[in-house]
Amino acid sequence: MSPTCGELRGGDAGAAVTLMGWAFRRRDHGGLIFVDLRDREGVTQCVFNPATGAEAHAAAGRVRGEYVLAVRGTVQARPPGTANPQLPTGEIEVAVGEVRILNESKPLPFHLEEGVEVDEAVRLRYRYLDLRRPRLLRNFLLRDRVYQAVRASLHAAGFVEVETPFLTRSTPEGARDFLVPSRLARGHFYALPQSPQLFKQILMVAGLERYFQIVRCFRDEDLRRDRQPEFTQIDIETAFLDRDDFLPIVEGMIVEVFQAVRGIALPRPFPRLGWDEARARYGSDKPDLRFGLELADCSDLFRDAAFEVFAQAVHAGGVVKALRVPGAGGLSRRDLDGLVEEAKGSGARGMVWVRLAEGGPQASVALFRGDSALTRELAARLGAQPGDLLLLVADAFPLAAEVLGRLRAGLAARLGLIPADLFRPCWVLDFPLLEWSEEEKRWQAMHHPFTAPRDEDVELLWSEPGRVRAKAYDLVLNGQEIGGGSIRIHERRLQQRMFEVLGIGETEARAKFGFLLEALEYGAPPHGGIALGLDRLVAILAGTDSIRDVIAFPKTQKGTCPLTEAPAPVSPAQLAELGLRVEAEEE
Length: 587
Ligand code: ASP
Hints:
Elements: E1 16-29, E2 32-39, E3 42-48, H1 54-62, E4 68-77, E5 92-103, H2 120-125, H3 127-130, H4 134-156, E6 160-161, E7 179-181, E8 189-191, H5 197-205, E9 210-218, E10 230-239, H6 243-262, E11 272-274, H7 275-282, E12 295-297, H8 299-302, H9 308-315, E13 319-325, H10 333-345, E14 352-357, E15 360-363, H11 373-382, E16 389-395, H12 397-414, E17 425-429, E18 434-437, E19 442-445, H13 460-463, E20 472-477, E21 480-487, H14 492-501, H15 506-520, E22 527-533, H16 534-542, H17 572-578
Parallel strand pairs: 3-5, 6-9, 11-17
Antiparallel strand pairs: 1-2, 1-4, 2-3, 4-5, 7-8, 9-10, 10-22, 12-13, 13-16, 14-15, 14-16, 17-20, 18-19, 20-21, 21-22
Helix pairs in contact: 4-6, 4-16, 5-15, 7-12, 10-12, 14-15
């Protein structure tokens, strides 16, 4: 038989086998030579004994790291006391009778062993070697199972997979486009899609009803940590469904993916939180529900309190938000000063801490020390116990909530409150439709200009646009946004108003999205959809922090590919053909 290198077990002893793979580790014990042979599925120990295979033993003497071998031999139980319980094949080894060296390898630029730190630029330059590392290779086997589970789930729900163009026009996500010059129409450019948004809406007008695509998207942004200029989305659009019919379909897909890929049963339905509620309770619109530490509002306690700073904040329309951290009263003075600095780093003017110590409350502000009525009231409101730490921030609601939200996440990690391998998805709903841009002094779409307002808020679009809530939703998992979408506007009048509010004139709208607007005039059904970040989802399932660990050939932070050395200059002839000239870079 020709098993993989990850397959043989104790029960296979006695079987004649042929294995092929790479020489992962080699140990020469004088008489015996051991080679751990590795392929995609695992590692099997092969023993070369001069007494039973003199020629093979001699050949094994020439084998070096990453030589490619075919070995033929017999499976045998490892000698007593030498089994390796860490390795799935650890009970057995293959006594080699014959070996063929299928290829040699130069000495590697870095070790493939786990735990050896290698500079990322070097790893990406030799990505084919990097990917041989079992930990990394495993991510791609997992990613493949995710594709299959997504497709199976969506097909079962009546979805049709359709491809949309890469050479197209600007889409409405609002990032910078990657442009591709046209040779046939000089001076004209394609834009690589930031998402298939416009096409998927048009597919709804076309009558596809349920569309999905596992699709690459391109956004030319400065690469913040863990962003990639090209990334993969599970892109979905449906017709005739409203939000509450649609979200359970997406939820079902996520549940099936977790079940198929990790054998994990996610509890359904996923909790739903309003945008305001998420920020009020967790200080974030990407709430991490793996732990408690909910924020509380204590504004009323301070409205008339003798503590000027807080009272003033409340009278000015702000809030006093509080975070109770159970059992964290033991944090040192230095730790607490550090937390105050963190709060200031997030934009707070200050933060008050109160430690409910054995000998009475200690606090950064005198008013809360000792047996003060205010502290007693505060502790009662927060359900605080001796040994707890209380953190208080007074400011405008969004800032106070965000500051404590960040501390909440940081403290949970630091205090070990986040259980390993726990997955807590939730929906965040009712985002505002618009946000005010101070810089540009105009409203901007919080999602994109095709997102529909909630029915009960439509009239506000004419009077108070800032108060309009959107039929938009985000899927959040363990504090990370893994998807976002909305029910779309499908009526001309509303779309027109939306453009007006955004300060996009008729001509500009026609120029940018004319083809979609026209399509919407030919019997567009009500429709809506979502896009889920596949790379992020796979990273979470694989238990890695970096999406670069689940993208086969990722770019560096500077947007380059060390393997292919893209981007690269092109020849003057190629430029001439496109009618382009590159200006010399200014020093
Ligand atoms: N096109 C949106 C995005 O890529 C998602 C959607 O609205 O479906 O963010």
